[in-house]
Amino acid sequence: MEKLALFGGPKVRTRPFEKHNRYGEAELKELEEALEQGTLFYWQGTKVKRFQSELAALLGQKYCTATTSGTASIHTALGAIELGIGDEVITSPVTDIGTVVGILYQNAIPVFADLDLRTYAMDPASIERCISERTKAIVVVHLGGNPADMDAIMEIAGRHNLYVIEDCAQAWLAQHQGRYVGTMGHIGAFSLNEFKHISTGDGGAVVTNDDDLGVRARAFVDKNYDRIAGTREPASLAPNYRMTELQGAVAVAQLRKLKDVCRRRTEVGDAITARIETLPGILPPKVTPAGRHVYWHYMLRVDEAALGAGRDTFAKALEAEGIPATAGYIPTCIYEYPIFTEKRAYPNSPFPFDSAEFGCNVEYHRGLCPQAEEVLASCVVLPCSEFFTAEDIDDIATAFEKVATTFREHPEPARA
Ligand SMILES: *Cc1c(COP(=O)(O)O)cnc(C)c1O
To answer: For residues 217 and 80, is the Cβ–Cβ distance under 8 A?
Structure first.
């Protein structure tokens, strides 16, 4: 075995991974048509409506409402279920902050369930322990593109009469038991930001089969105007999360590419797993039975003792071989962010965490979800792309083999 690049040996991969432009002629044509309409307002134009009806059809859902972001999508879903002050929402501590922004803007309280160590999904037993008489909803995060076990979650939600919102921002077209994520809970929320499977720069969508939720979501993105009835006096507060025809045009073109993008990402991620899963100390992500992972990124964990190296050293060694691996995902669990530990969602008040009026006083601190903390302490993240070639996958796997084998034979001094 050749010397590790980390210690001055030759790199497995010397060429950078190629960058590709995923926007092209198709997007340009839709944009031209949007501009030729003479309006960029969704209610007057055709592009946003077309995107909504095509995504609804693809997912087999009755309603789809376009939004301005994934954060807006989740907020819209929470608005549609009429989440209010002092309500509790159970969610994942390892996610994008956008998952909890809407909860806090509704002055509700996020409660964090612990994660499974191998799927990074919320553990159903932990969800059950988080339920109180204030719980109104569960926001499920299909982290990294790996579908959560929705059967178990829907069973719990059904018993406790809770809404389930699926955060599918990283999981476009992921499947659990042959069903798309976003179609198993009450509402599915999607992101179209620059880094997601398909993109409009920024944007999003919510889908549902429920008539009341569908109608309320549509109003919520539009200041709670009812454009069909023409009412201008909203029943309650709602933001403006309207998608413009410019995003709608790009969304229509991007949506046509979605199936191919996701199919290829599943192939790439599964191929990486097949090559590295037997290496000592390597713990690839586990997928639920009959599940389909769409690999927004490729997040694995390492067992430092079996590996003979620390997680950070391992990631640095991969990087030195020319593989863009990073140690860790978000810096800490969401509940360790000062917004939570110092109760400063709002600049001048500890509301809604601490409120005599609503009888709330919640504390967030390290140790709340030990397995989620363990996931973050032991994970390594690789980018995944639909543009990866067989050679790219081979280089990634070869670097893993080289680094893992070398550390098994020559453990880091601290671990020998
Ligand atoms: C990206 C993301 C969001 C937020 O989406 P934006 O479009 O960036 O607002 C929410 N949840 C998860 C899991 C995400 O990855």
So the answer is: yes
> In this structure, what DSSP letter does residue 155 have?
H
| Pocket of ligand 1 from Cβ distances under 6 Å | 69-71, 95-96, 98-99, 141, 167, 169-170, 191, 193, 202, 204
Domains (range + CATH), the chain: 25-255 (3.40.640.10)
**Average pLDDT value for residue range 53-70:** 98
Checking if the pLDDT of 3 tops 90, the result is yes
Tokens 């690789």, residue located: 382
Question: Considering only CA atoms, which of 206, 168, 208 is closest in space to residue 186?
Answer: 208
Is 259 catalytic? The answer is no
Edge-to-edge strands of the sheet including 204-208? 63-67, 204-208, 187-191, 163-167, 135-141, 88-91, 109-112
Beta bridge mates, 140? 166
φ and ψ at 198, to 5 degrees?
-130, 160
Q: What's the rounded Cα separation, in Å, for the pair 74 and 79? A: 9
Buried b / exposed e across 284-322, counting CB within 10 Å, b at 16+? bbbbbeebbbbbbbbbbbbebeebbbbbebbbbbbbbbb
Q: Tell the burial category of 142 from Cβ atoms under 10 Å away from its Cβ (0-12, 13-18, 19+).
A: buried
Q: Please state, in angstroms and as integers, the Cα–Cα distance from residue 249 to each residue in 64, 252, 333, 357, 374, following that order.
A: 16, 5, 36, 47, 42
Minimum-distance ligand 1 atom for the alpha carbon of 141 = 13
CA distance 380 to 20: 24
Ligand 1 atom, smallest distance to 170 CA: 15
What gap in Å lies between CA 95 and CA 65, rounded to an integer? 23
pLDDT tens, position by position, 342-381: 999 999 999 999 998 888 899 999 999 999 999 999 999 9
Q: Ligand 1: distance of its center to the CA of 189 in Å? A: 9
Q: What is the reported pTM?
A: 0.97
Choosing from 47, 136, 196, 402, the catalytic residue is 196
| Whether pLDDT at 83 is above 60 | yes
293/300 Cα distance (integer angstroms) = 13
Note the pLDDT tens digit of each residue in 179-235. Answer: 999 999 999 999 999 999 999 999 999 999 999 999 999 999 999 998 888 878 888
Q: What is the mean pLDDT of residues 81-95?
A: 97
